[in-house]
Amino acid sequence: DVKVTQSSRYLVKRTGEKVFLECVQDMDHENMFWYRQDPGLGLRLIYFSYDVKMKEKGDIPEGYSVSREKKERFSLILESASTNQTSMYLCASTPGGGVSYGYTFGSGTRLTVV
Amino acid sequence: GENVEQHPSTLSVQEGDSAVIKCTYSDSASNYFPWYKQELGKRPQLIIDIRSNVGEKKDQRIAVTLNKTAKHFSLHITETQPEDSAVYFCAATVSGGSYIPTFGRGTSLIVHP
Questions:
Q1: Are A68 and B21 in contact (CB under 8 A)?
Q2: pLDDT-derived band of residue A2, with 50, 70 and 90 as boundaries?
């Protein structure tokens, strides 16, 4: 069974902390994505990557950065966590090849910043 | 950019009834339309998708129809069961662009036993 694994299911962090959210996929997918999901706002794209060491800003990149040193791993970094970053964070991946495919999502990380 | 509208935001049906969720999109270049189901506390999962060269696709009790002229697509669930209760998201993607889907806001489907 194909898998996208997010390292933490629940996280509680303090304001100002640097936070790392890890995502690993075992499907050899080229494309990886980070979304946040908030009630009433739907899924919002933070960053995405089409290849190793490549990153592109999504719709709401402010306050976040990403790292993709290996094809299977895509990390989301909150440089200085703030309470408005309390949210559900979802990682996803798709194959590449110039064709659109559906996402395989991770289980999500529910982050609370206090 | 692409805009996807999804309706209704909430849908309540009795077990055994049919449910229909509709999405409209704005960019005529969109050519891939997936649907996701997200049960409470779980990840969204792809349940069915359709490409623009096809008008309808079925998988057991679920089906998706696409009207390219009117720029809308719909999810149909027949013989609903309580385990169909979830939030359903539609999306539209323009292949040849960024391949990033534009999601609808979601429909909360409640199936009453």
A1: no
A2: low
